[in-house]
Amino acid sequence: MSEPLVLVERRGEGVRGTALMRLNRPKQLNALNSELMDVLGRALLAADADDGIGCIVITGNERAFAAGADIAAMAKKTYAEALAEPFITRNWETIRQVRKPVIGAVAGFALGGGCELAMMCDFIIAADTAKFGQPEIKLAILPGAGGTQRLPRAVGKSKAMDLVLTARMMDAAEAERAGLVSRVVAADKLLDEALAAAEIINGLSGPAVALAKACVNKSFEGGLADGVDYERRIFHSLFATADQKEGMAAFLEKRAPNFTAR
Ligand code: HXC
C-alpha cells in the first residue's frame, strides 16, 4: 500500500485538541499535486467541522515544508487543461474556507506553491532552517496560488518583487524581519512551539477565535481596483481558447456554438 499523502493525527489532551497535518511526499520534497491537495482539503474541512478540534497545524518534514507544485505533474499541461483541471488551483484554496486557526510550521524549503500554502495559513512559525521563495519565474511561469498577492501584503512590494523576479530564497531570519513569519525557533523545537501555540488557542472561546481570525483576514481583502484588474487579465486570457473563437463566430453566423473545451 502506498503511504498517505498527508499524515493526520490529533494532538492535545483537552476537550479541544489540535489536528496536526504533515505533508508526506518526502522523496519529492513534498511537491504538491492535485491528489495531495485534495487529501489536505478534505482533512482541513473535517477538522473544521469537528467540535473536538480547536486549531490546525500544517507542517512538512525537516528538509521541506513543500518545494512547490509538482513540476512533473504540470510540465506538459496545455492552457485549456490548466484551466479545466483542479491543479491550477480549484482544490488549492480549501484552506481559506476553514474558520478555525491554521498555523503553518515551516522547516526547510517553502518554495513556489509551498510558500503560497504557508502564506494561506493564519500565521507561520519557522524553524531556523526555513527557506522561503517564489522561484516560478525560472520555469517561465509565475506564482499561481496567490503568491503575487499575499507576498507583497506580507513583506511589502520591493521585497516581493525581488523574490518573484529574481527567484532568490529568503532565510528564516530575513522572513521574520520582513514580517512573513511570526517567530523563528530552533528546528528541533518547531513542532513543540507550534503545538504550544495551538494549545493556547484551544483553551480560548471558539467563536471569539473564529471571529478574530475573520476580522484580521478582512483587513487583507483587496479593493475594487484589484478585482477589476484581475478580471481584465483573466478576460484577456480567454482569447487563447478555441471556444471563444467558436462562440463569437457562432453568434455572428447566427448558429448554435459547438464548444470543445479547448
Ligand atoms: C517535483 C520536485 C520538486 C517540485 C523537488 N523535487 N522539487 N519534484 N516538483 N517542485 C524533486 C526533485 O526532482 C528530486 O527528485 C527530489 O525532489 C529532491 O530534489 P533535489 O533537487 O535533488 O534537491 P536539492 O538539490 O536539495 O534542491 C532542492 C530545491 C530544488 C532547491 C528545492 O529541488 C528545486 O529547485 N526544486 C524546485 C523548486 C521550484 O521551482 N518550485 C516551484 C514550482 S512551480 P529526484 O527524483 O531527482 O530525486 C509552483 C507553482 C505554484 O510551485 C502554482 C500553484 C497552483
Relative strand content: 15-25%
Low-confidence stretches: none
Rg from Cα? 20 Å
Structural class designation: alpha/beta
Mean pLDDT: 91
Strand order of the largest sheet: 1-2-3-5-7-10
Apparent shape: globular
Distance between the termini: 37 Å
Number of helices: 11
Largest sheet entry: 6 strands, mixed
In this entry the ligands are: hexanoyl-coenzyme A
How many distinct beta strands? 10
Description:
This protein has helices at 34-49, 71-74, 79-84, 113-120, 147-155, 157-166, 172-178, 190-202, 206-218, 224-237, 242-252; strands at 6-11, 17-23, 53-59, 64-66, 102-106, 109-111, 123-127, 131-133, 170-171, 183-185. With 262 residues, the chain is an alpha/beta fold. A six-stranded mixed β-sheet has the order 1-2-3-5-7-10, sandwiched between helices. A hairpin with a 5-residue loop joins strand 1 (6-11) and strand 2 (17-23). Helix 4 (113-120) packs across helix 5 and helix 5 crosses helix 6. The chain starts with 5 loop residues before the first strand and ends in a 10-residue tail after the last helix. 35% of the residues are buried. The structure holds hexanoyl-coenzyme A (HXC). The site of hexanoyl-coenzyme A has 22 residues, from helix 2 and strand 6.
